[in-house]
Specification:
The structure holds 2 protein chains of 2 kinds. Chain A folds into 2 domains: about 140 residues, Aspartate/ornithine carbamoyltransferase (Rossmann fold), CATH 3.40.50.1370; about 150 residues, Aspartate/ornithine carbamoyltransferase (Rossmann fold). In chain A, about 40% of the residues lie in helices and about 15% in strands. Chain A is built from 12 helices and 9 strands. In chain A, strand 1, helix 2 and strand 2 form a beta-alpha-beta unit. The radius of gyration of chain A is 19 Å and the shape is globular. By secondary structure, chain B is α/β, with parallel strands linked by helices. Chain B folds into 2 domains: about 100 residues, Urease, subunit C, domain 1 (Roll), CATH 2.30.40; about 300 residues, Alpha-Beta Barrel (TIM Barrel). Chain B is about 30% helix and about 25% strand. Chain B has 12 helices and 18 strands. In chain B, the strands form 3 sheets. In chain B, strands 1, 2, 3, 4, 5, 16, 17 and 18 form an 8-stranded mixed beta sheet that branches. In chain B, helix 8 packs parallel to helix 9. The longest helix of chain B is centred in the middle third of the chain and has 17 residues. Chain B is globular. Classes of the chains: A alpha/beta, B alpha/beta. At the A-B interface, helix 4 of A face helix 6 of B.
């Protein structure tokens, strides 16, 4: 086990959780198994375990978020941690304070773990490089780089419904260029041994050299969905129309929107996932989103157990 | 003051040879090589046995940060760094604050240099447009008479191709060199890394090759149209090298440089968001690096600059996309040049030519050669000395180096500028 990885301690255990890239199958499987053990907690009437009692978790979000932030907060509360929630996109940084000073000041409040979302790729690494020893950093999304807990809850969902990764064909559809979720998913699926990972998108939404991450490229949705077991739809941000990446939402839906008819190209028992928030009628048709193959709401539920797992593995080492 | 430099291996970048010989300096000039002039009497003798003697280096692009950003560097601190590293002439681009778009700023810079002791020659490059805004031409004739050696719009775009054409035409009318960093601002966008597998993996906003090459194609056409003698600065792409090679073959009055760090580093060196590797133009691919090296060997790229950009520590102490681009390059320019020769890319005199006589000729400054009657700008190097690159030990105020921890062979022992020993390693 290499100790060059910023995320791992000298025993090869998770110290921070910054990126899927660089982790091995054993660690990812450990996260999934630990999350499995927490699902029973979240189903109990008393939904608390004392693993992080006396610890303080700071959720620092420089970008808006609903479900990631709430599920991180719930995960911390169910582990009996104290939480501090800071929405900083309008606060300290607009007063000219440097990011490093922000870290130092919050750290001075005796924080044990940072959960951070920031618009700059690499910001979670930056945090991890500058926190005191013993403080953990969890990446809740850094720029267009990675969103590792989202990917792990997606892996959890896939394993829950499909049991094994070995025979799986997975298609990721949509704006890969701007998606930190897609990058983390691609790494996770390849590490866990999925048979084939496909990305399906118009050329303007596929970054140069994405094949080097181990994916097959498709620019046609029907062809890309053929014989697929898992379909992951990505959110299409409205800003993309302004950047001349796409002509219109209508044309995007006509070419890449997931309809029941297109979903029928995939295997009959294929599941449909979406990291949310979804744009109904843009990347996905309502009837598919609410249909029998959709596991989108289960993803959210599993998100709590997966985040509990990562928190307990890092701080509770 | 007269100096006798005894028994050094003198590197001649014009005739591309090296000879064990003596050099005699009187006042500011070289007055003899091999044999002293009649009745020469040395006030000082420097024993250069087992050392190399080269012309002082000419850095055709270095930012000293003064005026405007003296928390990053000053004329005093950066000229000290230059002479400690064998650099005796610095050409500074016009994007100081205020911009070098009027004679007062030129005078201010020369005044500061003289206050700092005139240890190093500073040559100012004037702005092509007022405030570099790309709208109105500067008073180029006035700037020329105050000492500007060339005109450039630095990293700033013109408001239109028409203004760029007029600026180039007007500069040509003044018989002045135009310096262009080919750059399409729209294609650059908010990018901070070369568009390729690395930027894709790290999710970094990317800068495509075309951000340089599309602009370069247009710029070359404007050279053909206007006849303006043009130097392309800080070329970073393989395709740019091809285009410049072709344009030169077509007889256009074009020269080019690349930065020293582009000859050694690629986008893979960014590793996990190492902000010391954030540069503009970005570190490109291995193929680009190879093409730059080939271009340097075959003469398509005429010279190499440091593109020195000292920063205060906080400028790089933030996530990669928010960090300020640029490296502190004065302290590593010569060691890396020597390494090019060590690696066998070119002979030592050929490498030195690309840092002395070539840039001096292009910029039209009296420097870069060791010959009788020339200005005595000389650097003496101990080739057997080793140094370990540590940013914190840099003479420059900027400690931002991407070469932290590299081992270098060769160390400057003495630097002479206009006949004065301005730097001595032992003292």
């Amino acid at each position: 086990m290499s100790n060059n990885n910023l995320q791992l301690d000298e025993n090869g255990k998770l110290k921070h959780f910054l990126a899927i890239e660089g982790l091995n199958r054993a660690i990812l499987t450990d996260i999934l198994d630990t999350a499995e053990s927490f699902t029973s907690v979240t189903e109990r009437t008393v939904k608390k375990v004392p693993i992080l009692r006396g610890k303080t978790v700071a959720n620092i979000f420089f970008e808006p978020s609903t479900r990631t932030r709430s599920t991180f907060e719930l995960a911390a509360l169910r582990l009996s941690a104290d939480t501090l929630n800071l929405n900083l996109n309008t606060s300290a940084t607009s007063k000219g304070e440097s990011l490093l000073d922000t870290i130092r000041n919050i750290e001075a409040m005796q924080i044990d773990m940072f959960v951070i979302r920031h618009q700059d790729s690499g910001s979670a690494h930056f945090f991890a490089q500058h926190v005191q020893p013993g403080v953990s950093v969890l990446n809740a999304g850094d720029g267009q780089h990675e969103h590792p807990t989202q990917a792990m809850l997606d892996m959890f969902t896939i394993r829950h419904f499909k049991k094994d990764f070995a025979q799986l064909r997975v298609a990721i559809v949509g704006d890969v260029t701007h998606s930190r979720v897609a990058r983390s998913q691609i790494h996770a699926l390849n590490i866990l041994g999925a048979d084939e990972v496909r990305v399906i998108a118009p050329k303007t939404l596929l970054p140069i050299g994405i094949e080097s991450l181990g994916v097959h490229l498709y620019d046609n949705l029907e062809q890309g969905l053929k014989d697929v077991d898992v379909v992951i739809m990505l959110r299409l941000q409205k800003e993309r129309m302004r950047g001349a990446l796409l002509p219109s939402e209508k044309e995007y839906f006509n070419l890449f929107g997931l309809t029941q008819e297109r979903l029928n190209c995939a295997n009959p028992d294929a599941i449909v996932m979406h990291p949310g928030p979804a744009n109904r009628g843009v990347e996905i048709e309502s009837s598919v989103m609410d249909g029998p193959q959709s596991v989108i709401l289960q993803q959210v539920t599993f998100g709590i157990a997966v985040r509990m797992a990562v928190m307990s593995m890092t701080v509770g080492r | 003051m007269s100096i006798h430099i005894k028994n050094g291996l003198v590197i001649d970048p014009i005739n591309l040879n090296q000879t064990q010989t003596d050099i005699y300096v009187d006042r500011n000039l070289i007055v003899g090589i091999g044999t002293p002039p009649d009745d020469f009497k040395a006030d000082q003798t420097i024993d250069a046995s087992s050392q190399w003697v080269i012309p002082g280096l000419v850095d055709c692009q270095a930012r000293l940060r003064e005026p405007g950003e003296v928390h990053k560097g000053t004329i005093e601190s950066e000229t000290l760094a230059a002479i400690a590293n064998g650099i005796t002439s610095l050409c500074i681009p016009p994007d100081t604050q205020p911009v070098i778009d009027n004679t007062a700023v030129v005078e201010l810079i020369q005044h500061s240099n003289s206050k700092a002791g005139n240890r190093c020659h500073i040559y100012t490059i004037g702005a092509l447009s007022q405030k570099l805004e790309g709208e109105h031409l500067t008073n180029m004739a006035g700037l020329k008479s105050s000492g500007c050696i060339a005109f450039s719009n630095a990293n700033h775009s013109f408001s239109s191709n028409l203004v760029q054409r007029r600026a180039m035409e007007y500069a040509a009318g003044q018989q002045m060199l135009v310096i262009i960093q080919p750059r399409d601002a729209d294609l650059y966008g908010n990018g901070c890394a070369h568009e390729g597998a690395v930027s894709t993996r790290l999710g970094l906003p990317s800068i495509p090759e075309a951000a340089e090459t599309a602009a370069l194609a247009k710029d070359i056409e404007l050279v053909a149209q206007t006849g303006a003698r043009t130097h392309f600065g800080q070329i970073s792409c393989a395709r740019s090298v091809d285009m410049i090679r072709q344009a030169k073959a077509n007889g256009l009055p074009i020269t080019a440089d690349c930065t020293m760090h582009q000859l050694f580093l690629t986008d893979h060196d960014i590793g996990e968001f190492d902000t010391s590797k954030l540069t503009i133009p970005p570190l490109r691919s291995q193929l680009d690096r190879q093409a730059l090296r080939n271009g340097l060997v075959d003469g398509t790229i005429d010279c190499v600059c440091s593109d020195h950009q000292p920063h205060e520590i906080d400028a790089k102490l933030c996530p990669f996309p928010s960090a300020e681009p640029g490296i502190s390059g004065l302290d590593t320019l010569l060691p890396l040049a020597l390494r090019l020769a060590e690696e066998g890319l070119m002979s030592l005199p050929e490498v030195i030519a690309r840092l002395t006589v070539n840039p001096a000729k292009i910029m039209g400054i009296p420097a870069g050669t060791i010959a009788v009657g020339e200005l005595a700008d000389i650097c003496i190097i101990d080739p057997d000395a080793h140094c370990y690159c540590l940013g914190r030990d840099f003479v420059s105020k900027g400690k931002n180096t991407p070469f932290e921890g590299w081992d270098f062979n060769g160390c400057v022992t003495t630097t002479i500028v206009a006949g004065d020993v301005v730097y001595n390693h032992d003292s």
